[in-house]
Amino acid sequence: MIKTLKIEPLTKEAFADFGDVIESVGRDHFMINSGSTERYHNVGEVQLDEDGQGIISIFRAKMLEYPLQVKMLERHPFGSQSFIPLFGHEFLLVVAPVGDGTMNIDPATVRCFRANARQGVNYHRNVWHHPIMALRDDDEFLVVDRTGPGNNCDEFFFDESIQMTVELD
Amino acid sequence: MIKTLKIEPLTKEAFADFGDVIESVGRDHFMINSGSTERYHNVGEVQLDEDGQGIISIFRAKMLEYPLQVKMLERHPFGSQSFIPLFGHEFLLVVAPVGDGTMNIDPATVRCFRANARQGVNYHRNVWHHPIMALRDDDEFLVVDRTGPGNNCDEFFFDESIQMTVELD
What we know:
2 copies of one chain form a homodimer. Chain A contains no helices and 17 strands. Chain A is mostly beta strands. The first copy, chain A, has a single domain (2-166), classed as Ureidoglycolate hydrolase (Jelly Rolls, Sandwich), CATH 2.60.120.480. Chain A starts with a strand and ends with a strand. Chains A, B: Its cofactor is Ni(2+). Chains A, B: It catalyses: (S)-ureidoglycolate = urea + glyoxylate.
């Protein structure tokens, strides 16, 4: 199987099987702080297991080489993981749904999204995703994820006969 | 008591009694994603009570009027609350330490900090703080805090004889 992944715009609806889109644009809010602040409430939930602890980290990422060959995806079985751009730059995502929970990914289910400069994402527990795909060097992302006991990262490597590529415009 | 609060630069050390400074500059990291990403790990912890759930929200804030009279501070007894600038703009903080846990704030302990454009904060549980003090209208902040049962917001109003002011340069 050889294919170039279509880069889709990131929307709440299209991303629903994978996680939350963290954005204010087009979302409901309510007023707080005596009317000086709009609260876009709970646009993403921090998923944790019983022994887990939510933590806030920053990832500073180099841009990968394109065309990018998608050789592997990873998942976090014990918690969600969010990526929110801190420098206001677009980035890409490659994801696959949870599936049947086994260590297997159907290549036909792999999708690619482009987050605009005002969008972050929150991958739900067990959603397969590619390591961060910044579109410039030393871009920074806020990450909210889980720490605690156990191995919280599974990696799945595709068979070499499967060639999935992401090409920039 | 009448005083103008001194605006201090935000540093990890100066802010230690109030919470975490969320930043990459000057912090340790380790490499992940085959060396393409620096992880500035656990720069803030999501504090929750037993029944709490961590959530991600966005606050869009108007700039308050300056000189600002600090009439009240609030605290969240069941969890931490973080504010990370999404548009890369400075903002101000006014805080007071947890103290003895009662509904009382010693005005002498109130401090004001200026976060630079690459700094966020994570207020620890029960730390007194002013509602968000953006320095321009419609500035956006990522907020990680707690939802769940119970009243998670106490407000303390200073006696009118206490006049604390924040003046911009």
